[in-house]
Every structure is written in C-alpha cells, then in structure tokens.
Here is the input.
Amino acid sequence: MRYNLFKRGAILLSVAAGWAVVASGSSALAQSNLAMDEARKQVSSTLDASIKAAQSGDVSALDKVYAPDATIIDSTGQSTWSEYKDKNFKAQMATMASSSHNVAVTKMDVFGDTAVVAFDYAISSKPEAARAVLGDGPATAAVVTGSVGIFGKGTMVLRRTNNEWKIVHVQTAGRAMKPGEREKLQSLLGPQ
Here is the structure.
C-alpha cells in the first residue's frame, strides 16, 4: 500500500511539474508573441516612412530608412542604395511625383533581427507632371505618351541594428499594363 501511495505521489508531482513547464512555456511564448508584434509594428513603421519619403522625393528621409549599402535590384539593374539614389533617383522620383501608386504588403515574416516583406504595387503616371520634371527627351517618351502604367511585385529585407530597422535589400519586378488594365489600375488606386 505504501508503495502505491509513493507511486501516486510521484505521478502527481510529475503532472504538477509538467503543468509548471507548460505554464512557464506559455508565459515565454506570450512574451515572444508580444516582442514579435512589436517588431512587426516597427517594421511597418519603417515601411510607411520609406513609402512616404519616396512619394515626396525626400532623399534625407530615405537615407534614414535605407542602409547605405542596401542592395537595390530593379529594371535598371543592381546597385547599392548610395549608387541608386545618385544614378536613378531623379527619373524614379519624376515618375513617383507624377503618378498615383499603391503598395500593399502581402506577407511579412520577422526572424529575430531580420524581416522579410513581400508586396504588390501599382503605378499609373501622369504624363504632364513627368515632362515638367524630366524635360523633353527619350527618357520621358513612355511617360509623356501616357503609356506608363505598372503592376509589380517586390520583396524587401530589413535588418534591426541598435533597435532601428533599416532596409538592406529591395527587389522589384514590374510589367507594363496590358490593354484594358488601366481601368483595373484606376479602381485599385482610386480617382486620378
């Protein structure tokens, strides 16, 4: 009888210890989820700041969210952020300033101090404003004729350093709109 009581006592202690581990694990998981939610909010804030700065052409604000050696890959090739803003920024900003655009995050994963973001974007240019910024010439031909309208997808990688999230990699792939897609774009972006 004494052996059975001892055995039952050991079983009860094992169950109690198991529940304690589950409870502490749940607490750690809850803290981890809170940290993950906070990281997602910080990443979203960085993304919002980058979109706002790009739309307004604010290079100094973009410098705050991009790492100087960030890799940019788009239809113009591959470069660092520092090279990209010097080589391509004027033309890109002319298009941004003369367009309606929408960016929608489709997926965000945070892995410690690294975040990976997938997004869709749509751009529809306003030809008159692009000509005013870029002037006349072959670089503006597509914009000026009103043929620029782009749907695209992209990925972005951000890294947290000193509790700040910086964009370290961006890759976009866009395609010109097909006939009839302009209306689809306008319904996505709203009135022009």
In short: The domain at 2-189 is CATH 3.10.450.50 (Nuclear Transport Factor 2; Chain: A,). The longest strand covers residues 99-111.
